[in-house]
TrEMBL record:
Gene3D superfamilies attached to this UniProt entry: Electron Transport, Fmn-binding Protein, Chain A
SUPFAM superfamilies hit by this protein: FMN-binding split barrel
A Pfam family it matches: PNPOx_N
Source organism superkingdom: Bacteria
Protein name, UniProt field: Pyridoxamine 5-phosphate oxidase
Domain Pyridoxamine 5'-phosphate oxidase N-terminal: 47-136
């Protein structure tokens, strides 16, 4: 089957732009190559999504304006339910409900999952379905019990296509927890040296007192 992500993204006008700037031949090969992973999530995508604590989601309004929203939560709050479905709980935010309103008119979404430390990006096309609070069975799959935020609804997204992006121009960024993990050995070593210095200072003070 054709590369599903390319099939969606490479519209006639996009292909014209690729032809104009010299990349069309490469992407034509991408479209024609036998591809089995681009519309079914494998273990690689599942692990990558499970390790994320945020993503970006784009929707389109009935007036044609795109809207991008940042979604965040504890690591793993986006769940891969099967090889073609992901879902997440919608935590209360600023209550503008722009994404929610847009989805009432057009269920198509585009998602970016970013791994800044490793300069990796997974982009995904899908169709979103809103899950109400009365759907206990589905919401139970999306809940994060230890996260203290009010859940207003859930979202299920049927994957239509995805692709991995190149690392070019992605700036490395780290969360506070990641920085703490990386500097933990240094922090421990500093504490050890400070303790040794304190012990040495105490021993020197005792020696001086004995001499006196």
């Amino acid at each position: 089957m054709p590369h599903r992500y390319a099939e969606i993204a490479f519209t006639p006008t996009v292909k014209k732009a690729q032809e104009q700037f010299g990349s069309r031949d490469a992407y034509a090969r991408m479209e024609g190559a036998p591809e089995t992973r681009n519309h079914r999530l494998s273990g690689l995508e599942t692990e990558f999504i499970a390790a994320r604590n945020s993503f970006y989601m784009a929707t389109v309004s009935e007036t044609g304006w795109p809207y991008i929203q940042h979604r965040g939560g504890p690591t793993g709050f986006v769940r891969v339910l099967d090889d073609s479905t992901i879902g997440f709980a919608d935590f209360r935010g600023n209550r503008q409900y722009i994404s929610l309103g847009n989805l009432a008119n057009d269920d198509r979404v585009s998602l970016f999952f970013m791994d800044y430390p490793n300069k990796t990006r997974l982009k995904l096309f899908g169709r979103a379905k809103v899950v109400g609070l009365d759907d206990d069975a589905t919401l139970s799959l999306l809940e994060t019990p230890d996260y203290r935020a009010r859940v207003e609804r859930g979202f299920l997204i049927r994957v239509e296509g995805f692709d991995w992006n190149c690392p070019q121009h992605i700036t490395e960024r780290y969360t506070l927890d990641e920085v703490r993990a990386m500097t933990a050995p240094l922090t421990a070593r500093i504490a050890e040296l400070e303790q040794q210095l304190a012990q040495a200072a105490g021993a020197e003070q005792s020696r001086v007192q004995i001499i006196r």
